[in-house]
User: Fold this.
Amino acid sequence: MATRTPNFFIVGAAKSGTTSVARYLAEHPQVYMSPIKEPSYFARDIIRTMQPPGWARNQKGLDGYLNGPMSGRRGGCVLEWEAYLRLFRNVAGETAIGEASTAYLISPNAPADIRSAVPRARIIILLRSPIERVVSTYLMFRRNGRLRVELSDIIQSGESGVLSEWRRMLLETRKIAPGVERFLNTFPESQIRWYFHEELSSDTIAMMRRIYAFLEVDPEFHPDVSRRYNQVILPRLPRLHHAVHRAGLWALASRVTPAKARPLLRRVFFNTRPQPRVSPGDQAILVEYFRDDVNQLSHLLKRDLSYWLSLG
Assistant:
């Protein structure tokens, strides 16, 4: 079987709907998506130091998975070229072949490395208010058991101290204007499209049609948009949840629980509706922190994004 390489990439931004879009793309009969989301091959310059959530667990057994049928989804960063190509070993007649790695938008080397390997690659960028992304990222770390402190403590912490690394992960990595500029400077404009999270929320089908058209596959295909992925949820019992995650029991339960029973499992162990409110003081800190990044992004995209900085 001939070796295939991806011809399109979802490069971010993190917590902007990349998982949902990747899943909706995977449903299309003319699209093949990597069975691993976030393989991050082209972000090798930063990915080892970032240590994404579940890094050690996801890297364990990765070679065995890549050498097998790859019949189910799993996590893991694939940082060797030959191993990376195995992700696309099962491509059959699909014409659009892609993967989604949000680290590409914050990696200084990713745009040039992708262009060098796949000169005609199409680039998809999903965008969302950085303040909403901070909250969503915080909830992800709470959900996976890595974080137990309050969001306000992180926002108000300084650049040094015990919470400084969490502040960097939640705030610094949410700045994306430099990454967008790198892609715009590296790829022809015709090979890049950006879409907004509010479009995904308000009219998912219409947005997916535009993405399908960009990838030159049938735009009339209707994915199942009844489910949104990576929803905002918090554990009902944070201390117990943290201990279960550290012991690896939650990953085990996820593997052995039948797919139909998983929504019930989520309802039992998580609050799916409430999300933490950012106080006016904390919001003011975030607005000033992201002001330059949002203004730069507005200039790059020729679109007024100042509403992202509105207090309320």
About this structure: DSSP finds 16 helices and seven strands in the chain. The beta strands are 8-10, 31-33, 96-100, 122-127, 192-196, 234-235, 270-271.
